[in-house]
Please model this.
Amino acid sequence: MTSFLSNLFGKETLSVIGIDIGSSSIKVVQLKKKGAQAILETYGELSLGPYAGVSVGQATSLPEEKITQALSDLLKEKEVNVTTRLAGIAIPYSSSLMTVVEMPVVPPKELATMIPIEARKYIPVPISEVSLDWSVIPRDTFKLDPLPEDASVQAAAPTVAPTGKMQTQDVLLVAIHNETLSRFGNIAAKNQLITSFFEIEIFSTMRAVLDQTTAPMMIFDMGAATTKLFIVERGILRVSHTINRGSQNITSAISKSFGIEVDKAEVMKRHFGLTDTTPDGVNVSKIIILTLDFLFIEANRIILAYEKKYNKNVSKVLLVGGGSSLKGIEALAQKNFQTEVYGGDPFSKVVTPAFLDEILKQTGPQFAVALGLALRRLEEQA
Ligand SMILES: Nc1ncnc2c1ncn2[C@@H]1O[C@H](COP(=O)(O)OP(=O)(O)OP(=O)(O)O)[C@@H](O)[C@H]1O
Ligand SMILES: [Mg+2]
Model:
């Protein structure tokens, strides 16, 4: 006899995975749903450096076959023990083109025909070569007359305010090159993955780390070669910006200063971070701070520009990406920002074994994208 108590938790769904193919490593997170809860089953990471003849922690630019092979190796890795092929995959932010466009307030169907025409102004390649997606950014205040629910009864002409001025709306426009989509499609197919969506990484991160905060906030994603900055307000992406400097720059700086190999510098970076410990009397944190200062200055510039433009305070900064696993980064960041700084803790959104708490908090920032993807894949099964 099976226990009827198990019904209390609802039916279990199949396990799903989120796959984040970053420039320096592939990350995977496997979740399962039990009742209303998402449960962490396993997670893992595979460095791409060795596939490209560079050190762990360095960014790579690998051809499709090598990525396919690396992903296959990660999915076969016994210690990670991925047991499902139901997946969601991230598209790197750098392979996308995002812009906010101002459009007249028209019914959704009409907007759908207007967007590709408008998109031509912003997209430097023929529209036939990209896949477009968009979403209307809701207004802060109810300045607009709401449109009727039923599109068929909506007037074809744009809504005109009583002042006679045409009402406009901001629309977030996203384009991905078809070649990118087919590249990721091939990588997935060759690994027998049942992929139901590709999602630009920032949207996965947002799902993984955002809370109920409606005020503007910054997501600071420090990867290997780049640091990506995003401002999100009321759960909507408003600003995105890439700095061509990331955690691998810290490694090279350590390598040069100490005259040591890159892989040794990488170990040193991860081991000491910004702690006060000084191997051989030389302070590693001084070297690390040089790179971080540059990034924080840039991030502050973006924050100030947003605050000035919209006359609002950016309420907090969330640190994600492997570079944010650096020991002591939160405290240093806090000194540099006038706003609250938090380390992103994506695993707090799911049920995890207590004995992993410490390690998940430390490595968590790196898995934000993969976790966000898995959460979406899980929702699809509900
Ligand atoms: N504990 C740690 N301390 C300091 N740095 C770390 C630590 N763990 C990882 N890193 C650094 O984080 C970087 C990788 O971060 P992440 O995995 O977020 O990048 P990625 O997703 O591959 O890159 P991108 O998103 O830019 O394509 C590497 O440069 C690595 O050295
Ligand atoms: Mg990344």
Notes: The CA atoms of residues 121 and 138 lie 23 Å apart.
